[in-house]
Write a structure and sequence with these properties.
Elements: E1 2-6, H1 10-22, E2 27-32, H2 44-48, H3 63-70, E3 73-76, E4 78-84, E5 89-94, E6 100-104, E7 107-110, E8 114-116, H4 120-123, E9 131-132, H5 137-150, E10 154-158, H6 162-173, E11 177-181, H7 193-205, E12 209-211, E13 216-221, E14 228-233, E15 238-240, E16 243-246, E17 250-252, E18 283-285, E19 292-293, E20 300-301, H8 306-319, E21 334-338, E22 341-347, H9 350-355, E23 360-368, E24 378-386, E25 392-399, H10 403-415, H11 420-424, H12 440-453, E26 457-458, H13 460-468, E27 474-477, H14 481-486, E28 493-494, H15 497-503, E29 513-516, H16 521-532, E30 538-541, H17 544-556
Parallel strand pairs: 1-2, 1-7, 2-3, 7-18, 9-16, 10-11, 10-16, 11-12, 26-30, 27-28, 27-29, 29-30
Antiparallel strand pairs: 4-5, 5-6, 8-17, 13-14, 14-15, 19-20, 21-22, 22-25, 23-24, 24-25
GO molecular function, one term: oxidoreductase activity
InterPro entries: FAD-bd_OxRdtase, FAD/NAD-bd_sf, FAD/NAD-binding_dom, FAD/NAD-linked_Rdtase_dimer_sf, Pyr_nucl-diS_OxRdtase_dimer, Rhodanese-like_dom, Rhodanese-like_dom_sf
Organism: Listeria newyorkensis
Length: 557
């Protein structure tokens, strides 16, 4: 068999490596349009910020090494121009020599990756010399050289996803004034708005200017040179910019498929089955050009990440050489560091869970990552569970330390369809330097399970909506007098927890009652007291007054 792979970054090289491990008989050929193979796109921002000192460390394997190691013919700077499925051939242009030739395949693997989405205003001004993408090693080298030579002071980042956030951090650390312009209503679109707002606050705390609901309308050039000096946004505001980073997301690189009949899925990426095969015999697709599907809903899901691309490549390489690996879907797990904050998510957001038809319970769990007496720092876990089954559906976490291990535990739990009760019973590692005696994961499971069965929660958003509807509610603040006078939920009355039993008789047990403390624990204790005293419906405000005030701040902004 002759296998041809188009593309040689994460997915393409994984296909070749796994296929060769399975067999020495097959011929494997790789065509790559660029100069480099198997490089780390994800590491580029950290090279720009000098956390990675040498660009060579992002390209640990060159074509010669890979070819020798795996007996795979790798042709860099070769662009595939056309695919002919009926003849099972491709047309290839040698970009160095200009020679056009045809090659035949028995199996073709599409690993062309994704291409950047370019806003129209920048597509029309592509000659600008201070506008950069962050997609490959040449981009990284270009940005680094520009910073070294021009010493830019003001950076403008268009887009607030992974790359936008990472570049904001790294350019700020290199001493620049940084502005992030985002067309949507929030940063990091894969978070719920209330969790994204925590990220926005961290950016602003670090001196990053964040402009939401904003797009670039016009650009101005510096003294008729091919460099943009400033932009005017859709709100009429003007920003000076010495360097501009386009981080507006990517789209599957499917241009090559015209006339092939290869099916494009709902996400805009190539539709594949569990062995990564397309609808056309002899053609497979992997990595950022192919769509995956959700482990929870079974629906198509497109999350272009290196981890998923590597996994898809391994599965395809195995399947094409007689193996039995199959793709099981993904959760869309992601993580990013933003200055002192780590942000992570997995599974469904609250919005996605509701859209998928689940009746859900939502918990905000605000806890330190380890013992307070050893410097524990607060993290917020927003967890989503299905009320009918108790199954964990998704989680989002912000915090300083320990976020990575908690999101990985939750991703594992969701993969194996764990319930909230299952989380509480996990036997997790404990010692004061690493965790609290009741780890935030265990507490998340316990509190969600209680909420599903006995002690319902109410989110700040739901509480505000019910108040705005005019519903008569009984809201009790169980904190200290000083805390209550500093800030409180609208229309709350103050009854400290220690006085609640003695004052329960002045309350109406038939009214919907909301109790709260600062973060949620004391509120739960108050909820139990009132439930055991005969109150019919008692909610604990999830995340307490701290979460409520943050929600109001978000609404105001």
């Amino acid at each position: 068999m002759k296998m041809i792979i188009i593309g040689s970054v994460a997915a393409g090289t994984s296909v070749a490596a796994k296929a060769r491990r399975n067999t020495e008989k097959d011929e494997i050929v790789v065509y790559e349009k660029g100069q480099d193979i198997s490089y780390s796109v994800c590491g580029i921002p950290y090279f720009i910020g000098r956390e990675v000192q040498s660009i060579e460390t992002l390209t640990p394997r060159d074509a010669a090494w890979f070819q020798k190691r795996y007996n795979v013919a790798i042709h860099t700077e070769h662009q595939v121009l056309k695919i002919n499925p009926k003849k099972q051939t491709i047309e290839v242009l040698n970009l160095k020599s200009g020679v056009l030739f045809e090659d035949h395949y028995d199996e073709l693997v599409l690993a062309m990756g994704a291409k950047p989405i370019i806003p129209e205003i920048f597509a029309a001004n592509s000659q600008a010399k201070n506008v950069f993408h962050v997609r490959n090693i040449q981009d990284a080298a270009g940005i680094d050289q520009f910073i070294h030579q021009k010493k830019p002071r003001k950076a403008l980042i268009i887009g607030a996803g992974f790359i936008g956030m990472e570049m904001a951090e790294q350019l700020k650390q290199r001493g620049m004034e940084v502005t992030v312009v985002q067309r949507g209503k929030q940063v990091m679109k894969h978070l719920d708005p209330d969790m994204a707002f925590r990220v926005q606050k961290e950016l602003e705390k670090q001196g990053i200017r964040v402009k939401l609901n904003t797009s670039v309308e016009t650009v101005n050039y510096l003294d008729e040179t091919p460099s943009i000096s400033s932009i005017m946004d859709s709100n009429g505001d003007r920003y000076e910019a010495d360097i501009i980073i386009l981080a507006t997301g990517v789209t599957p690189n499917t241009d090559l498929l015209a006339g092939t009949g290869v099916s494009i899925g709902k996400t805009g990426a190539i539709s594949v089955n569990e062995t990564m095969r397309t609808n056309i015999p002899g053609i497979s697709a992997v990595g950022d050009v192919a769509e995956s599907y959700s482990l929870i809903t079974g629906q198509p899901l497109y999350r272009p990440l290196g981890s998923t691309a590597n996994k898809m490549g391994r599965i395809s390489g195995d399947a094409l050489t007689g193996g039995n690996l199959k793709h099981r879907g993904i959760l869309g797990t992601g993580i990013v560091r933003i200055f002192d904050m780590t942000v992570a998510y997995t599974g469904l957001t609250e919005k996605e869970a509701r859209a998928a038809g689940f009746e859900i319970e939502v918990l905000y769990n605000i806890k330190p990552d380890k013992a307070d007496y050893l410097g524990g720092k607060e993290m917020t876990i927003k967890a989503i569970a299905d009320k009918q089954t108790g199954r964990i559906l998704g989680a989002q976490i912000t915090g300083r330390n320990g976020v990575d291990k908690r999101i990985d535990v939750l991703a594992t739990a969701i993969t194996f369809k764990a319930t909230a009760a299952d989380l509480f019973h996990l036997d997790l590692a404990y010692a004061p330097p690493f965790s609290t005696t009741k780890d935030p994961i265990l507490y998340t499971g316990m509190a969600l399970d209680n909420a599903i069965h006995d002690n319902p929660l109410i989110t700040p958003e739901t509480l505000v909506k019910r108040q705005e509807s005019g519903e008569k509610l009984q809201i009790i603040d169980t904190r200290s007098k000083k805390q209550f006078e500093t800030s409180a939920v609208k229309d709350a009355i103050h009854i400290p927890l220690a006085q609640l039993r003695g004052n329960a008789n002045i309350l109406d047990p038939n009214l919907p009652t909301i109790v709260y403390c600062n973060k949620g624990v004391t509120g739960n204790a108050a909820q139990n007291i009132l439930r055991n005293t005969g109150f019919k419906k008692v909610y604990n405000l999830s995340g307490g007054n701290k979460n409520y005030q943050l929600y109001l701040e978000m609404q105001e902004k």
